Amino acid sequence: QVQLEESGGGLVQAGGSLRLSCAASGRTFSTGAMGWFRQAPGKEREFVATINRRVGSTVYAPSVKGRFTISRDDASNTVYLQMNSLKPEDTAVYYCAENTRAPWGTPVTKSGYDYWGQGTQVTVSS
C-alpha cells in the first residue's frame, strides 16, 4: 500500500512563494507520474501539475504555468511543487497523487491517479 504525505502549506501574502513536498512510502513505483491537484471551497478538484518519473516530462495547468515548477527527487521518493508569484486565487487544499498504470504518461485528470495524499492547505492573502 502506498502512502503519500504532503507538507509545506501555509499562509503567504500575494506575490510570495511556497514549496510543497510530497513524500511517498510503502510500495512505491519508480515509473508513472506524480501529480498535484488542488481544491478550493465549493469547487471541483482541479489539476495543477504532473511529472513522469521515468522521463521527467512535465505538464502544467495554464493557470499556473510559468509560476509553478514541479520536480522530483528519486532517491527520497519525494515530489516538490515550487509555487512563486502566488495569487489569492491559488488558495486551496493541495493534494499529491500517484499514477501506477501508465509508465510513460502524464495524466491530467483525477481518474488517472491511483493513490492520494490527505492534502495541505495553502492560503494566499491579498
Summarize the structure.
With 126 residues, the chain is mostly beta strands. The protein has strands at 2-7, 10-13, 18-26, 33-39, 46-52, 58-60, 68-73, 78-83, 92-98, 115-116, 120-125. Strands 2, 4, 5, 6, 9, 10 and 11 form a 7-stranded mixed beta sheet that branches. Strands 1-3-8-7 form a 4-stranded antiparallel beta sheet, with no helix packed on it.
Task: Please give the count of helices.
Answer: 0
The major pleated sheet works out as:
7 strands, mixed
Ranges where pLDDT stays below 50 over 5 or more residues in a row are none
Strand content: over 45%
Order of helices and strands: EEEEEEEEEEE
Estimate the helix proportion, in percent: under 10%
How far apart, in Å, are the first and last alpha carbons?
A: 40 Å
Task: Say how many strands there are.
Answer: 11
| Derived structural class | mainly beta
Query: So what's the overall shape?
Result: globular
Tell me, rounded to a whole number, the average pLDDT: 94
What's the alpha carbon Rg, rounded to whole Å? Answer: 13 Å
Task: Write up this protein.
With 126 residues, the protein is an all-beta fold. 0% of the residues lie in helices and 50% in strands. It has no helices and eleven strands. Strands 2, 4, 5, 6, 9, 10 and 11 form a seven-stranded mixed beta sheet that branches. A four-stranded antiparallel beta sheet has the order 1-3-8-7, with no helix packed on it. Strand 7 and strand 8 (78-83) form a beta hairpin.
Write the layout of secondary structure elements.
Elements (H helix, E strand, L loop, with lengths): L1 E6 L2 E4 L4 E9 L6 E7 L6 E7 L5 E3 L7 E6 L4 E6 L8 E7 L16 E2 L3 E6 L1
Parallel strand pairs: 2-11
Antiparallel strand pairs: 1-3, 3-8, 4-5, 4-9, 5-6, 7-8, 9-10, 9-11
